[in-house]
Amino acid sequence: MTSQTVMDTLKILGSATIHEAQGQRGAMDSGIKPLDPTLRMAGRALTVDCSPGDNLLIHYAISKARPGDVLVVDAKGFTEGGPWGDILTLAATLAGIRGLIIDGMVRDTDTIIESQFPVFCRGLSIKGTHKHQSGRVNETIQCGGVAIRAGDIVVGDRDGVVVVAAEELDDVIRASQAREEKEEAFRRELEQGASTLDLLNLRGTLDRLGLK
């Protein structure tokens, strides 16, 4: 598959299926939410570690981005400033960046949503930030409670964000597709009268717990 086909496949599979298929690993915490839940996103991580209340390294990272990157920013969960807004959204779009995941806040919400640029963040803050502190780009960071390396794959939708290790991508896609096929078979059996208790082999657990 081409890179674009791979990313489209990941978006169709979705974050929840991918998370389950890779052994319930890689999910960012539920505080990282989509600004626009109708948008789906998948791409390789361009990682950014920046100081709370400062977005200098975000501007720097955009200058280093390749088309297809997703900016993944550890802004330390800082809630009293929005280091991302409409100008950075436009700059990122023009650079071919697929989206933003930030452990922090954003602002200029209406303009970002109108641009159809996927953003996943902790919330909104109208307060501005500074541009004078250093940080790190394309090194391993923490975002949403998950370790992410430059080049790992991130998938986001209304359910949340999941990280896939780059070297595991092919295996995770196969496992996710197998899970989808299994669940489709479950749907057919449920429509024919089957019980989830039997499909998921839960009878023994119920008996052990004394649930008749």
UniProtKB/TrEMBL annotation:
Binding locations of Mg(2+): D108
Keyword Endoplasmic reticulum: no
SUPFAM superfamilies found in the cross-reference section: RraA-like
Cofactor: a divalent metal cation; Mg(2+)
InterPro entries reported for this sequence: RraA/RraA-like, RraA/RraA-like_sf
Gene3D superfamilies xrefs: Ribonuclease E inhibitor RraA/RraA-like
Annotated residues for binding of substrate: G85, D86, I87, L88, R107
NCBIfam families: PRK09262.1
Protein name as it appears in the record: Putative 4-hydroxy-4-methyl-2-oxoglutarate aldolase
UniProt source species: Salinicola socius
